[in-house]
Specification:
2 domains, Ribosomal_Su5_D2-typ_SF, binds ligand DP6, 8-stranded mixed β-sheet, lipid biosynthesis, single chain, Ribosomal Protein S5, domain 2, lyase
Amino acid sequence: MNGGATAAARAHSNIALVKYWGKRDATLNTPAVGSISVTLDALYTDTRVTFRSDLTDDELWLDGCRSDATRVRRVLDLVRGYAASAGHPAGGQHAVVSSTNNFPTGAGLASSASGFAALVVAATGAAGLALPARELSILARHGSGSAARSIFGGFAEMHAGTASDGSDSYAEELQGRSAWPLAVAVAITERGEKSINSTIGMVESAATSPFYPAWLDSADGDLAEMRAAIAARDFTRLGELTEYNCLKLHALMLSTRPALIYWNAATVAAMHAVRELRSGGVPAYFTIDAGPQVKVLCLPGDAEVVRQALAAVPGVHEVRMSTLGPGAYRLE
Ligand code: DP6
């Protein structure tokens, strides 16, 4: 074993309140629309990166299984570029990446978001680089657009950007997690891998849905309103806009050919349970990504009643409770 430069990092998953769907440039992985998310304390990825002179290629181990390293290689190539300029030996070496999630991988719980954010912090750490958070966010974006936001804690905003080199497509923190404590319940309705990954799904939506132009046109308005709701700590406004933006995304997905139907029966039942909670006076709002899980935002004092209501929904296997989480950081 040729022990090389190594570092480990933890990054938390995030869920978008105003969602990213659609790419401006597929090679640079720049988004067609900005997005706003909250980082989740309870769901995270731990990743170790070790650069070694004896390797002939990069290796990825995901939850103990050897996995396809194509996307990881894309990010590592960029890190190697920085390392080579800084004269670090990692610039000319391949790496072993081992990553573990504390939640089901690939089931719409944003494992790519936490995964690529952890990868970037661990890889740049192993390569002896101290890059500003904005650079880390850009590197993470090359792995997965949503990962750019998981570099930050609390509330984060990803900018779509306009530059042809992608240099203004990065996320930044809008508000720290302690400024406005919120709770998020994650109702897990399926543990398996999702059918169509987001990368493919969003390309299909752009190519086939007649709603895609409207999705693009209405994004800036949603972002401005969400920024205002967060700044004013107006939970009703934040929640209503979160649900509206989520359902607008799913209308876009449903109008894609072939249709992207990410919901199962329990997903729909959980949405109704949230609306019933609201009729009963509990402010709670759902959001759903490219998978069947339902994430519910509520105030910390209502977390237990929301957890119980979701756990009682037929088909909900488990409810994970979370507060808002921190940005990505080095372990050790
Ligand atoms: C529905 O970040 O997974 O979760 O950039 O192609 O890797 P790629 O896509 P990804 O898409 C996330 C889509 C979403 C909404 C969001 O997180 O904003």
